[in-house]
């Protein structure tokens, strides 16, 4: 009776590979010979269920996590490098601002000194004009005295002329000394003005160079900030791609698990018949 059941079952069963029978059926029917004997300690596998591959999934998850960790490390390194470069550029810009302020202060001091020297030269020229006017007045007085001497005696006239002449010579010498002194002061003032002019030109050149360097530093700072923003955007895109990859991986894993569950159910239906 049991052999007849075996022949009937073999005709109606699909050719789906070796069939595993639970141990309960071995105890009920001793005449059945299963091609795969049950051994305790080994997992029960269904022929319709594909082998569960947990190692590749875990390896894929590990690769995704490692890639995400490396990307985050690269992002942190790029961000720290951008912050350091920005800090260096900001410090350099502050130094250039201090230097520019110092040069501007020196330029203002030089302009003030030049104006003071110009005022001094103007005063010396005024003194020179005053000395020339005084000399002219002295000569005029000498001419008037000479006219008046016509009414004085010869001896008195001679003494008066000598006195007036000595006084005039003294005044001329004083005027000439003042004139020479004024000319020397003017020459020194001109030399100082020329020197101050060259210093002002040098300061203006240094100020222009500092301004150019500050502008270049500012442009470099903007470039660094733009590169940092681009790096952040690229990093965010990478993270979004990784997140999408992980989500796709999870969906694929769920889909495989569902398909495996369905195939397992089908295998259970075909592998667990009522053999009684």
Residues in β-strands, percent = under 5%
Tally of contiguous helical segments:
4
* Poorly predicted sequence stretches spanning 5 or more consecutive residues: 1-17, 19-56, 272-276
Distance between the termini: 11 Å
CATH topology of the domain at 66-227: Helix Hairpins
The first-level CATH class of the domain at 66-227 is given as Mainly Alpha
The run of helices and strands is HHHH
Q: Outline, from the CA principal axes?
A: rod-shaped
Structural class: mainly alpha
Q: Architecture of the domain at 66-227, according to CATH?
A: Orthogonal Bundle
Report the C-alpha radius of gyration, rounded: 57 Å
Biggest sheet features: none
Question: Quick one: how many beta strands?
Answer: 0
Q: What value does the average pLDDT take?
A: 72
Coiled coil: 166-206
Region (Disordered): 1-75
Biased composition (Polar residues): 1-15, 57-68
Keywords: Coiled coil
């Amino acid at each position: 009776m049991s052999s007849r059941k075996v022949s009937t079952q073999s005709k109606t069963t699909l050719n789906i590979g070796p069939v595993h029978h639970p141990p309960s059926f071995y105890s009920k029917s001793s005449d059945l010979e299963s091609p795969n004997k049950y051994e305790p300690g080994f997992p029960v596998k269904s022929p319709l269920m594909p082998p569960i591959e947990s190692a590749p999934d875990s390896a894929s998850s590990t690769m995704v996590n490692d890639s995400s960790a490396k990307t985050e490390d690269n992002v942190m390194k790029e961000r720290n490098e951008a912050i350091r470069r920005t800090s260096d550029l900001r410090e350099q810009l502050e130094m250039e601002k201090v230097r520019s302020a110092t040069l501007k202060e020196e330029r203002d001091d030089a302009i003030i000194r030049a104006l003071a020297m110009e005022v001094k030269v103007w005063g010396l020229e005024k003194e020179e004009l005053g000395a020339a006017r005084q000399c002219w007045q002295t000569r005029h007085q000498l001419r008037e005295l000479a006219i008046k001497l016509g009414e004085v005696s010869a001896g008195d006239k001679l003494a008066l002329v000598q006195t007036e002449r000595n006084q005039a010579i003294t005044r001329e010498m004083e005027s000439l000394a003042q004139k020479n002194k004024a000319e020397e002061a003017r020459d020194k003032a001109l030399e100082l003005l020329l020197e101050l002019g060259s210093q002002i030109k040098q300061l203006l050149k240094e100020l222009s160079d500092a301004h150019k360097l500050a502008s270049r530093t500012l442009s470099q700072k903007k470039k660094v900030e733009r590169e940092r923003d681009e790096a952040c955007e690229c990093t965010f895109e990478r993270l979004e791609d990784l997140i999408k990859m992980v989500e796709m991986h999870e969906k694929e894993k769920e889909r495989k698990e569902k398909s495996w569950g369905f195939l397992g159910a089908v295998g259970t239906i075909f592998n667990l018949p009522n053999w009684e």
